[in-house]
Specification:
The complex is a heterodimer of chains A (491) and B (305). With 491 residues, chain A is an alpha+beta fold. Chain A has four domains: 2-105, no CATH class; 117-159 and 445-490, TATA-Binding Protein (2-Layer Sandwich); 186-282 and 417-433, no CATH class; 284-410, no CATH class. Chain A contains ten helices and 23 strands. In chain A, strands 4, 6, 10, 11, 12, 20 and 21 form a seven-stranded antiparallel beta sheet that branches. A five-stranded antiparallel beta sheet of chain A has the order 1-23-22-3-2, with helices on one face. A five-stranded antiparallel beta sheet of chain A has the order 13-14-15-18-19, with no helix packed on it. In chain A, helix 4 crosses helix 5 (61-69), helix 6 runs antiparallel to helix 8 (161-186) and helix 8 (161-186) runs antiparallel to helix 9 (424-443). Chain A is elongated and about 120 Å long. Chain B is mainly alpha-helical and 305 residues long. Helix content of chain B is 73%, strand content 2%. Chain B is flat and about 60 Å long. Residues 40-50 of chain B have low confidence and may be disordered. Classes of the chains: A alpha+beta (491), B mainly alpha (305). Chains A and B meet through helix 2, helix 3, strand 8, strand 11 and helix 9 of A and helix 7 and helix 8 of B.
């Protein structure tokens, strides 16, 4: 009884495996993968634009809540998306590996036997009397056919590389999928905002955010350090669009060794092995000095503000938890100042040609001890009272009662993206092989040609078979027939 | 010459190309419509009046003028695209206006290339219409003054990735025209005989084969375009694949055409089902071009709109 059940179970498994690895299933899974990637292009994704996801949540809370249950805001990292591509991966392996072994076995093998009746094949021609099988064999070999010579017939085949290319293509896809997995499991990716003049040391604490692959350890970071020497942004004066970003750094690898000057641009990252450092974004940090009532300096330095529009109107917060009572500023940095009745102060050009710093001063509890994480770019004014509002040009000060703040100038900041992807080179290799395989498989014609002595013994029958209906067989058979007739007339 | 004169020249060349394509459109329209004539009139009345015939020998000249104009239009458009590039000192693929004029160039180039190999003059009419619509939209809605590139686009990969994508797009659209023609004729034949004007068009089997060959020819190029984009993305954005909407739809197009090729080669789909799949795949490409460029968000926001 139990034996039968075991047999049934094994049979069921075998059946499932056969279903999974059938071409139809692979194709269906491929289509399903395409279909499944659509929602990610329609709804905002956490991995790309977390702000937009938040906006979506505040606009339709209930709907967003349910959509989130189906991971519609992180489609490409969701279990159901993974399920599809893992199944596809298995199906692909199950489909391609047996075919590869079959194909390897066929290396050097002879074409299949000549069919009994050639009359029903394509391009069937009868060559009267003259030609010989030897001539046909010579012609076929010269045209690089594989030939099987029997006593009364020849079977020839050409275009095996079609299957070779086909298999290479599919094996390369498997390689790409593996490379993606390696990159995800063994890589790391992080971002850090650094002001011009500051030094960045590549340790986990230096990052604003940093994520490691499942099998990657924190100590694996390349121990380099960068000092931001200069950042130069150039803008088109008619369109305001950026035309060039150049970041100059003093790079040490490892940190503490002699520094050498390096230039990083948008399309030219700095490379250390499989780690690359990219210039991703930039903005302004106004430099301020804050003094308390006694005139003692409580804060001095640049504060990172985040750009809000293409002309780099930037907003941020300055928090002074050590003053008593606590003081905070909500700020807006305008690189090239203009003013209108409807918008108030705003920027008309992204370069800092005529900068202003607009501040509103607040007093009370900054809320930093509440235990909830707080954005450094925003001031929680719920437990604070407003002291006043002021617009400053460079060098001007604002006395807010509990002390004073001076707008000393500004610095640029750059957002560095630091990525370690050890799978990248394999993905590239896979991609190159895939294109090569694809071209070989799509541009190679596979066909068979048979030559057989007619039952009467006085003529030769010629016929062929083109796989997948590829064109050109008729011409090829005609050429062979012409060659047969030619030698016939000579002899 | 300065940048402005080149930009000015480019605009005039594009306008001239549009005028020439309009002539091509009328020539092809005349070729089709005036070749229909009534047997009754020609041979004297002895049968009923409905015996209309189709005689292309009457309008051969018009057809030839159409082809000549298509060639001239292509050359003018080509010069216009080159002048646009010279005006900005770069490859002319920086915004959607430039993608569109180059796309129209690739599309009409694909038609002329296919015309040299197969008997395809009948496609002249829809091709002329499609090119005129593309150029018209480009110059009225999408037009942007010639300007230098934003930093992210300053890369050799711009020339490689975008040219491959545009060329593939041109051929995909041509395959779509062929597949659409197949479906129209197939419907006509299933209701009875072909209408008079359609009698000279190729057989269904030829159309089916042609659509397949166009796709099989250009699929490796599209694969390459996607890969070149990934290589570029790696150097510009630090990630070779980030499921940006444009990448996602490029992938969907790739999957759809891969499915089409498999359906034909391994499952043996022919005819109607294959034509529908081909149309579907081509429309994912168009969707990517129109929707993602104009309304989508993401990293590929270079339409300039």
């Amino acid at each position: 009884m139990s034996e039968i059940r075991e047999l049934e179970a094994a049979g069921l498994l075998r059946w499932m495996w056969r279903q999974l690895t059938s071409m139809r299933t692979a194709l269906l899974l491929l289509l399903l993968l395409g279909l499944a990637s659509i929602p990610g292009s329609i709804f905002p994704q956490r991995s790309q634009n977390p702000m937009k996801v938040q906006q979506y949540f505040s606009a339709n809370p209930t709907l967003a809540h349910w959509m989130d249950k189906f991971q519609l805001f992180s489609v490409y990292g969701s279990p159901w998306f993974a399920a599809i591509y893992i199944l596809l991966f298995i199906s692909l392996i199950g489909c391609v590996l047996p075919r590869t072994f079959d194909h390897l076995k066929k290396i050097g093998a002879k074409p299949p036997l000549t069919p009994k009746f050639l009359e029903k094949m394509e391009a069937f021609t009868v060559v009267e009397g003259v030609g010989s099988l030897d001539t046909a064999e010579k012609w076929l070999k010269r045209h690089r056919f594989r030939v099987r010579r029997e006593s009364t017939s020849i079977s020839a085949e050409k275009g095996y590389s079609r299957e070779t290319g086909n298999l290479l293509f599919h094996l390369s896809l498997i390689l790409i999928l593996l490379a993606v997995a390696v990159g995800g499991l063994l890589g790391s990716r992080g971002e850090a905002i650094v002001n011009v003049g500051e030094r960045f040391v590549n340790t986990p604490t230096s990052y604003d955010n940093l994520s490691f692959g499942k099998f990657q350890k924190e100590g694996s970071l390349v121990p380099f350090a960068l000092t931001i020497k200069n950042f130069k942004a150039t803008y088109n004066i008619t369109t305001n669009a950026p035309s060039d970003y150049v970041l100059t750094v003093a790079a040490e690898n490892p940190a503490g060794s002699t520094a050498n000057t390096q230039v990083i641009r948008v399309n030219k990252p700095l490379t250390y092995g499989s780690t690359k450092i990219y210039l991703q974004a930039n903005g302004y940090s106004p430099v301020v000095t804050v003094k308390d009532k006694t005139g003692k300096i409580t804060f001095q330095g640049p504060v990172v503000f985040l750009p809000q529009d293409a002309n780099l109107t930037s907003t941020g917060a300055i928090k002074l938890p050590d003053m008593n009572p606590q003081i905070g500023f909500v700020g807006s940095f305008v690189p090239t100042y203009d003013r209108s009745a409807t918008r108030g102060a705003f920027s008309v050009f992204p370069e800092a040609l005529d900068p202003r710093l607009l501040l509103s001063a607040w007093q009370g509890n900054l809320g930093l001890d509440s235990g909830n994480p707080q954005s450094v770019y925003r001031l929680d004014t719920s437990k604070m009272t407003k002291l006043g509002l002021k617009q400053l040009a460079v060098g001007q000060s604002y006395d807010f009662g509990e002390g004073s703040i001076t707008f000393d100038g500004w610095k640029s900041w750059v957002n560095l993206q630091i990525v370690d992807d050890p799978g990248k080179m394999y993905a590239l290799l896979g991609a190159i092989l895939a294109v090569l395989g694809l071209m070989v498989s799509l541009f190679t014609r596979q066909r068979r040609i048979w030559v057989k002595i007619d039952p009467t013994g006085k003529a030769l029958q010629v016929a062929g078979l083109a796989k997948n209906g590829t064109p050109g067989l008729d011409e090829e058979v005609a050429q062979l027939v012409a060659a047969l007739l030619n030698t016939g007339s000579e002899g | 010459m300065t940048s402005t004169t080149y930009a000015y020249l480019s605009n005039n060349l594009i306008y001239s190309a549009m005028a020439v394509y309009t002539i091509a459109f009328f020539a092809h329209a005349i070729e089709v419509s005036f070749s229909v004539h009534n047997v009754e009139v020609a041979a004297g009345a002895d049968t009923d009046n409905s015996a209309t015939k189709f005689d292309f020998s009457r309008t051969q000249r018009s057809g030839r003028i159409g082809t000549a104009m298509m060639t001239l239009g292509f050359l003018l458009l080509f010069a216009g695209v080159i002048a646009r590039g010279l005006s900005a000192h770069r490859v002319p693929w920086g915004n959607m206006y430039e993608f569109s004029i180059t796309g129209a160039l690739a599309f009409s180039g694909a038609y002329l290339y296919a015309l040299a190999k197969y008997k395809l003059r009948w496609l002249g009419l829809p091709v002329a219409i499609a090119v005129l619509l593309t150029l018209g939209t480009a110059i009225t809605v999408l037009y942007r003054p010639s300007a230098p590139l934003v930093p992210a686009l300053k890369s050799t990969w711009l020339a490689i990735h975008v040219s491959a994508a545009i060329a593939s797009g041109g051929v995909f659209l041509l395959a779509n025209c062929v597949a659409a023609t197949y479906l129209i004729l197939d419907r006509m034949e299933s209701k009875g005989a072909r209408k008079v004007w359609a009698q000279r068009l190729p057989s269904l089997e030829t159309l089916d084969q042609l659509a397949y060959r166009l796709v099989a020819f250009v699929f490796p190029l599209w694969t390459f375009a996607v890969i070149a984009g990934a290589i570029w993305a790696e150097s510009a954005w630090g990630r070779y694949w980030s499921w940006d909407p444009k990448e996602t739809w490029a992938f969907i197009t790739w999957v759809a055409y891969a499915a089409y090729l498999h359906a034909r080669v391994t499952i043996g789909w022919r005819g109607r089902r294959a034509a529908w799949l081909c149309l579907f795949a081509g429309s994912t490409f168009l969707f990517n071009y129109v929707w993602v460029n104009i309304w989508g968000s993401g990293l590929h926001t270079y339409s300039g709109l």
